[in-house]
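[Discussion] Sanity-checking designs against the backbone

I'm trying to build intuition for which residues belong where. Below is a structure token string of 175 positions. I'd appreciate it if someone posts a full sequence so I can compare it with mine line by line.
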């Protein structure tokens, strides 16, 4: 049986899109933590941020991730900040192979800016906020991931295939 796959990375890296394609390739169920949060709270991410702030959102996210430990046959797409809490990092390590999807910062910012659903970019200077968050999180992604995949200028289908290949090589080398 194939292992679970956990996609982490900064906003705009393609976790949800690549995750859906990876789920199709593997026959796994696609699970997006942001979608689960919206479903359990019956509110949008921006509404949740507005009501309970980032810390309250992170509490909800932590509970959702804890519920996924032990679930088999999934490709999990995490929110970009899910890696901020140690409890979440520990849960993700129990869920499956952790892939850090990455791309050049300019490309990530351009992709992330297309959406109005990104509360952390709703600032006077979105690029400055983006750069600050990216720099603060980069080392956490790096230390948590089993491997990094740079998706700069690669279409999502190719990224999904290559991530699967790389993950299977990693999985085969595990004790």
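Best answer:
Here's mine. Compare freely.
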């Amino acid at each position: 049986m194939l292992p679970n796959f956990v996609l982490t990375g900064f906003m705009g890296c393609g976790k949800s899109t690549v995750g859906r394609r990876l789920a199709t390739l593997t026959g796994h169920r696609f699970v997006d933590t942001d979608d689960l949060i919206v479903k359990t709270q019956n509110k949008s991410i921006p509404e949740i941020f507005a009501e309970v702030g980032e810390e309250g959102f992170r509490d909800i996210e932590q509970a959702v991730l804890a519920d996924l430990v032990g679930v088999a046959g999934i490709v999990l797409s995490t929110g970009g900040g899910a890696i901020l809490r140690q409890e979440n990092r520990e849960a993700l390590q129990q869920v499956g192979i952790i892939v850090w999807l990455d791309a050049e910062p300019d490309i990530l910012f351009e992709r992330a800016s297309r959406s109005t659903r990104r509360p952390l970019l709703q600032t006077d200077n979105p690029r400055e906020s983006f750069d600050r968050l990216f720099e603060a999180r980069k080392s956490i992604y790096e230390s948590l991931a089993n491997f990094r995949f740079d998706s700069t200028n690669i279409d999502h289908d190719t990224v999904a295939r290559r991530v699967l290949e790389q993950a299977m090589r990693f999985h085969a080398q595990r004790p």
